[in-house]
Amino acid sequence: MHCIACRALLCVSLGKRANFNLGTVRVRSTKCLSDLQVKSSYKVNEKSPLTSRRKVCQRVLEHFDAQYAEELGSLWMSVRSVLLNPDCWQHGVMLNRFTDLGDLRMRLQELGYTSLLPQSDQERPSAHTLPPPVSAGSLECVVHERPSTHTLPPRVSSGSLECVVQRAPVRLPAPRHERGRLKPYFLLNAASLLPVLALAVTEGDRVMDMCSAPGGKALAILQTTRPGLLHCNEVDKHRCDWLSKTLESYVPAPLMETLQLTNQDGRDFGHTHQGMYDKVLVDAPCSNDRSWLFTSSVQQGELWLKERQKLPKLQAQLLCSALAAVRPGGAVVYSTCTLSRAENHAVVEAALATCPGVEPEDLQEELANQLSEHFSFAPPLWPPGLLVVPERLGHTWGPMYLSRLRRRT
Ligand SMILES: C[S@@+](CC[C@H](N)C(=O)[O-])C[C@H]1O[C@@H](n2cnc3c(N)ncnc32)[C@H](O)[C@@H]1O
């Protein structure tokens, strides 16, 4: 039996070239590890950005300390220690059901990855077929529970979306582009699937992903079901190109016909596309707590902290635009990857105050209770929303805030 580090290195057989960061793995047996390195022709990437060599921006940290100690109380100290230690961060693997997954699934299971999401008893769709009409969908993402476990855990709810995870902070190499082949998996912070699950897209839905680049959540939506339309929008031209490349790398040509890609300001859609969608996702631009802590210069840190003050206004405008673009009865999911109350609850509160006929929905039963094995949530606040907090080893997902608003009239 190999130690966790060695099992991670075994993952090299999944990719053509490994770029594992050994810093992310607790090495129990160096002998075992070196045996494997000898057997494998793959090299460990020593330049991985996810090592403790990353520099913390003290200015940003001080700012976070002041704000989050007040907002999260004693929870902040545990969150802080996870955020400051990239070596302990977990990485989820969302499988691309549009590729042949047979071999990949088996290998991930051998490596101790287990399914993150409750799976239905339905058979998973085979490669190259379109997904069945299920709400939690066919998105899969894997995680590592116990190195000795070779079977996936029991399925606790319906859906075929696949994401596998490990408790250990092991990271697969990102799949490389291969001409004529779709990429088999997408690496992500597993908490970023929660807004997609909350959106609960069903077959035929007209969906807008208002702030879409680089496209992780758009891909996740397509793993769950086949929408009637998936309109992916991104205001920034370069990021829009990136989004387009992501979609081409994962989505088969026939399904691309369901996609619409635009490069516009999301704030305009409330006027130009009033009531046109069943579901809208606003994965808003926000203070990205994880990356902001590791900015390369003090000046950049200062700049971000200035920009941070402007974000709640932009976020509220985007959310109001989405609420106008959704039809009566339709739903909007608002999400961010920051802990900041000003960018989360306060934005939802502002939108509820300005947009008549809108109700927030409680996601506790539907999502938080079912996924508490993997995620830690901050104590609930009003308006209802879930805040995933990275707070201990094996629960390092997040930050991710999400709230679902239903347009009644
Ligand atoms: C958090 S990222 C989205 C991540 C994406 N949903 C994913 O899962 O890969 C927010 C995005 O919103 C874009 N954005 C910022 N302002 C916008 C606006 N006014 N309209 C539309 N998109 C905007 C940013 O350029 C950025 O790409």
From TrEMBL:
What UniProt keywords apply to this chain's record, in alphabetical order? Methyltransferase, Mitochondrion, RNA-binding, S-adenosyl-L-methionine, Transferase
Q: Name one GO molecular function term.
A: RNA methyltransferase activity
The source's domain of life comes to Eukaryota
Kindly list the positions annotated as binding S-adenosyl-L-methionine. Answer: 211-217, 234, 265, 283
Coiled coil (UniProt feature): none
Where located?
Answer: Mitochondrion
What InterPro entries does the entry give? MeTrfase_RsmB-F_NOP2_cat (IPR049560), MeTrfase_RsmB-F_NOP2_dom (IPR001678), RCMT (IPR023267), SAM-dependent_MTases_sf (IPR029063)
Q: Name one GO biological process term.
A: rRNA methylation
Specify the SAM-dependent MTase RsmB/NOP-type domain's residue ranges: 115-408
Hey, which family's this protein in? Answer: Belongs to the class I-like SAM-binding methyltransferase superfamily. RsmB/NOP family.
Query: What is this protein identified as?
Result: tRNA (Cytosine(34)-C(5))-methyltransferase, mitochondrial isoform X2
- The gene from which this protein is expressed is nsun3
